[in-house]
Amino acid sequence: MIKAVLFDLDGTLLDIDMDIFIQNYFKLMVEMARHRGLPYQDLPKKIMTATEAMIRDKDPNRTNKEVFESVFYKICEADPNLMAAFFNDFYKEAFPRLSSLAAPMQGAQEVVAKAFEQGFKVAIATNAIFPYSAINERLKWAQCHDFPYELVTTYENMYFCKPHHEYYLDICRFLGVQPHECLMVGNDVAEDLVAGEVGMETFLCRKRILNEGARRIKPRYEGDLLLLYRLLSET
């Protein structure tokens, strides 16, 4: 019996083209760094290097944030304290300006509300490579921020990233459920359907489907959030 529903964010609850978003995200960040007199020319490359290291890492004793910072501050010329303050200000002041690149996925708010109404434990299981401030901001864009989630996975509170099995198993431990008691809802075949390999039920959202050629396991369900709403209503 399903006890918990896990929602991916980007491309699932939030209608967003991540390629366009990332281009504008780095453009805005570089502009702000240049304005503040911080090293900016290779900033996106260095962030991606640290992010890729964070995604690969499987050390259960370091949070994703700790892994990211251990790599980034080794290759960044600026003072770590200055860069930490810069990132905090960026997500507070500049990041919200990217909201024009996204919109709520049709039925997003309603399906999350239905999951709560039906008594499920509900978590936001987005890849934990961003700070909470950035993820909560995107939840606002999806009009899904004002819910009492059991867990929102961020780089501060997680030790693994998608598509590692450990990411999903850690969510189970946090929620106090077994994998077979979870339904993972997402649009990325490579990152979200892998939850099925640890025993979770999966729902593939098709509108913003990613990595469709990477299927290793068939989803239990697939369709849009309106279909998911009906399925949750029947449980």
Automatic annotation (TrEMBL):
Pfam families, per the entry: Hydrolase (PF00702)
Alphabetical list of SUPFAM superfamilies matching this protein: HAD-like
MF-aspect GO terms: hydrolase activity
Taxonomic superkingdom: Bacteria
RNA-binding among keywords: no
Annotated keywords: Hydrolase
Gene3D superfamilies: HAD superfamily/HAD-like
Annotated protein name in UniProt: Haloacid dehalogenase domain protein hydrolase
Species annotation: Syntrophothermus lipocalidus (strain DSM 12680 / TGB-C1)
